[in-house]
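New to this. Explain the following:
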Amino acid sequence: MRWGLKGLLWVLLGLGVGWAQSDVETLLRRAASLFQDIQDYSVQMEIRLSGENLRVPPTTVKVYYKRPGKMRFVAEQGQFVLLPKQGVVVGDWVSQLRAKAECLWEKDEPLRGRPHSILRFVPKEPQRGVAYVRAWVDRERLTLSRLEFVAPDESRLQVEVWHTQVQGRYWLPERSEVTFHLRRMGHRPPSLREGEEGPSLPRDVKATLLFREYRLNQGLSDDLFREEEAPKSGGAKGR
């Protein structure tokens, strides 16, 4: 299953007492304004995967970001890394989520002891892959604390994000945990005979991403992103 905003489907929301749409737009504009002074940055990202019957050594990746939405992931020491792009929350998340979706307020509720608004992103036109996306937005820091991508078959990709203050003013990701909830697992490969069992695959897989050594506004060249501009998979191969 491919995860992405291109796969969003319309979701009918029940009517209730809540924010006006103008309040939602104001919240999103305030959140987007936090990134206006950040033209580019680089950060070191360590990836740790865990899950039943899953053994993968930690990997360190260099992440490069440049407005308006250029990203590049370069793994060190020739290692290969493949992650869902939605699990790596970098840059202007507001623009990324709003690119092909409309946003509606769902409800307010606390998360980790802080006030949050839950927003639901629905598509501007029907597409395949993901039924809807829910986002938990810190109403004071205006950061994205949780993302949940829900597929039509109810399998989910959940992203939890913790932030740190960089240069005394910017709240940027410090740690992220990406959890995959998979329903359709353990299919018997065609090469196996009836009664034989294939390898056991994990139903839940968690990727922990640790971010450190942010460097902001370095004047990164467009040439840095030319080879893997707008990668579809969020993966990177080291040179």
Residues 66 and 149 are 25 Å apart (CA to CA). The mean pLDDT is 75. The radius of gyration is 19 Å. The helical segments are 21-33, 93-98, 223-226.
